Amino acid sequence: MSEQITKEEPVYVTDALIAEDIDAYLETHQHKTMLRFITCGSVDDGKSTLIGRLLYDSKMIFEDQLAALESDSKKVGTQGQEIDFALLVDGLAAEREQGITIDVAYRFFATEKRKFIVADTPGHEQYTRNMVTGASTADLAVILIDARKGVLTQTRRHSFLAHLIGIRHIVLAVNKMDLVGYDQATYDAIVADYAAFARSIGIESFVAMPISGFKGDNITGPSENTPWYTGPSLIQHLETVELDSTIDQAKPFRMAVQWVNRPNLDFRGFSGLIASGAVRPGDGVRVLPSGKTSTVTRVVTLDGDLDEAVAGQSITLCLADEIDCSRGDVLAAADAPPQAADQFETTLVWMADEALLPGRAYWLKLGTQTVSATVQAPKYTVNVNTMEHLACKTLDLNAIGVAEITTDRPVVFEPYADSRTLGGFILIDKITNATVAAGMLHFSLRRAQNVHWQALDVSREAHAALKNQKPAVLWFTGLSGSGKSTVANLVEKKLHALGKHTFLLDGDNVRHGLNKDLGFTETDRIENIRRVGEVARLMTDAGLIVLTAFISPFRAEREMVRELLPEGEFVEVFIDTPLDVAEARDVKGLYKKARSGQLKNFTGIDSPYEAPENPEIRVDTTKESPEDAAERIVDHLLGWAPTI
Amino acid sequence: MTDPKVLTHLQRLEAEAIHIMREVVAEAENPVMLYSVGKDSAVMLHLARKAFYPSPPPFPLLHVDTTWKFKAMYELRDRMAKESGMELLVYQNPEAAARGINPFDHGALHTDMWKTEGLKQALDKWGFDAAFGGARRDEEKSRAKERIFSFRTASHGWDPKNQRPELWNLYNARKNKGESIRVFPISNWTELDIWQYIHLNDVPIVPLYFAEERPTVERDGMLLMVDDDRFPLKPGETPVNRSIRFRTLGCYPLTGAVESTARTLPEVIQETLLTTTSERQGRAIDKDAGGAGMEVKKQQGYF
Predict the structure, then answer these.
(1) Who among A63, A115, A129 is closest to B165 (CB)?
(2) Cβ of A115 under 8 Å from any chain B Cβ?
(3) Which of A246, B28, B182, B303 has its CA at a distance of 20 to 30 angstroms from the CA of residue A570?
């Protein structure tokens, strides 16, 4: 089977020791460490072949798999009659047919010193998000170069991404040396070329080596074909490079609280994975963001209490004092706590087909904290091939850009360069629940620290009490011409007659004043609703019952306003009129204009309307008169009758 | 600063699995742990006990039973449920029972009805929104690309093209209506990791993993154990006592044994390291649909 494969000395598993003294073998192997790395390059660079070889040499390929591989190689392989290692690592059926890897796959192999997890990701530009995903957990990146081609655009892209995501160890593997006759000059030229580029993007150091994944040169040990190369083989380097988790231990203690362990009244523990530093009984800790301090009494595990726990361990801590601490809080060294802020400069990698909408609220998850966050229009996007900064209004799939983010409450964080755990975050679409972006926090913006709430002596409760009413926002939503304004007007008249203090914000009157700078693009519509939401909130603080009549087509923005208000004060009223009925009415003649193309971005015609899923009140105007609907809404608001 | 404490690969894998389990408990409404009584399940249960100690794991164990497991598996299952203080839920697909579906007469339909359908029915019956499973990425090619948090549609289907990116150790556990999550905390473990962990932590496992003289017949190139008198012998077949053990456990009529003399854990590990056939090879299920067998099964809702 293996005439084509030049097999090096097996350094992976000492068969003799396994056979002779399994206990001694187990003893050594229980002390292995673990390194995670990513391989960057395309199939053409021999990436899959290299991974296949690492698995093969470490005996991670069994005979039955090899038999399947041999038959597959003959059927769909690209190496003629020889073994096509690429088939070993191309997982999904669709990918095998297309001959490309389109996702992140994880592979495993081990030597006597370490276990390795390899993230295998595709190399093309349209898979930037996959590479970023694979790189996010890696200690090291292997950048593959075809010795015949030298440094290419994709080499620069991969290096930039690996550096962006904070990988400290870069290996430049100049592959296919067998195809250039193991020529040192070729190798030296490529390394010099790469060194110049690496410096220009801030990569401080890298290790270069001449290899052949196919022939096995400098993979496990020194190759006779490259006597001029005196550095380590790939495996030797992977076995000895310093681990990120070791470096993390030297930093101050931080642990995001995942879960409060409370089996009975006598035990209260805080569970989490230590992000950095170490912790011992007697250590002073601070709970953030509250800032309260206490002392660690116990480090609890099923195997008994520990004298010390370090970065990378999952533990449960007990504290001396009964202080408030729950999921989302961060426990930190009392004398060196991280900061909290609500405005940041960040780098975002956009991962969804739907582009970033500046101003829209997304969920931001960082550590165990989940907050609502809005992204400002990006300052610039980076061309990942040339590293140029380009002006942009949004970020599309696979785009990388720098943008400011504002959160609805303070987030405990550290700059990403100091901590992947407290500096890395994801953005989640509130409606589809998809992970739409990965982000890295760089620093907090000063203005977050300088704007303080004016403490008010007359509270919102006092305002409301004077008016003898409970403030609320009746949010009317529906298509243009559905009857929102008609019903809202009737409701306000009835409330007024009952002695209630009200105010009606209408789409048309607001757009003539407060929002006259806004148009009808998706971004402007979001800003329109955000402003109306904020105004409505201020009015409820003044104790008013606010009625708003806006198309407000997007679920996300209506939810954003709901979250601005105390529970129960946002009443969504869906004026449910089918498009054909609204269009037939066409009170303002707008549908006609939209249909003829004179009016762009018209809801229902060339811009979507996302109907509410669970409105507090739904009015079907084809079945219920405006008068009856208004009566029902007033009853609901004042709690006089149950609604349907 | 003292010398850094170097964590071993098993300590890091353990910490990762515990972290994942706690995230699910914090974010899911109604989690459950699938428990198949195999060695991976044994490790999962042990990790769960570590994750929540001194509390018992705050979710039940679910055994989707086919009625065709080895007797020794049922014994260990009941014992472990008692020891861990967890609720044990056992589900058997009533339709499969009524139709008398069995591995001897029905082949692939047996797995489909008892396991795939049974699992879907059980998850629906109790309304579980997150289910822990012990699958590992080194087992099979399509698993290598599956996420740790793997989403299923309301009909339990898997869409390999539409998986959420998983960055750092941040998991997005938000579900759409009707969706559920399969969570694989030991995704990054290999078979050898599992064995070493069992060895180091004295995790109780089914005795069938150790070699012993057992009644067997050879059929279709597989060595099958005659575990009870439901095993229909073909003309000319007589059970022969052989020293065998199992590398993986499922329904006894579908699980191939290997001839072995490994009676202790170190001996089992020794054999595993020196062996040259992959673990799932003893199972009939992967061969069903050619190279893409498991991927197709997963799209249909198999775990």
Answers:
(1) A129
(2) yes
(3) B28
* Residue A552 annotated as catalytic: yes
ipTM score for this prediction:
0.87
Q: What architecture is domain B9-193+292-300?
A: 3-Layer(aba) Sandwich (3.40)
The model carries a pTM of: 0.78
Structure-block tokens of residue A20: 């002779």
Name the residue in chain B with its Cα closest to that of A117.
B188
Q: What is the pLDDT of residues A102-155, one digit of tens each?
A: 577 788 888 888 999 998 877 677 778 888 888 999 999 999 999 999 998 888
Distance of alpha carbon A644 from alpha carbon A632, whole angstroms:
10
A263/B contact by beta carbon, under 8 A: yes
Tell whether A22 is within 8 A of chain B (Cβ).
Answer: yes
Question: Could you give the CA distance from residue A278 to residue A315 in angstroms, rounded to a whole number?
Answer: 11
Map residue B287 onto helix, strand or coil.
helix
Name which of A23, A34, A102, A257 to mutate to probe chain B: the one with the most chain B Cβ atoms within 10 A of its Cβ: A34
Q: Tally DSSP H helices, then E strands, for chain A.
A: 21, 28
* Cα–Cα separations (whole angstroms), residue B80 to B42, B75, B87: 9, 9, 10
> Considering only alpha carbons, which residue of chain A is nearest residue B173?
A433
Q: Going from the N-terminus, what domains does chain A have, and what CATH number goes with each?
A: 15-242 (3.40.50.300), 250-333 (2.40.30.10), 339-450 (2.40.30.10), 460-637 (3.40.50.300)
A108 contacts on B by Cβ (under 8 Å): 137-138, 188, 190
Read off the pLDDT of residues A146-203 as tens digits, 9 standing for 90 and up: 999 999 888 888 899 999 999 999 999 999 999 999 999 999 999 999 999 999 999 9
- On chain A, the residues whose CB falls within 8 A of the CB of B6 are 33, 246
Q: Hey, are the CB atoms on B277 and A91 less than 8 Å from each other?
A: no
Contact A109, A89 (CB under 8 A): no
Q: Do B60 and A296 form a contact (C-beta atoms < 8 A)?
A: no
pLDDT at A43: 58
Query: Which chain B residues are Cβ-neighbours of A98 within 8 angstroms?
Result: none
Beta strand A339-350 with B88-91 is unpaired
Residues B4, A114: C-beta atoms closer than 8 Å: no
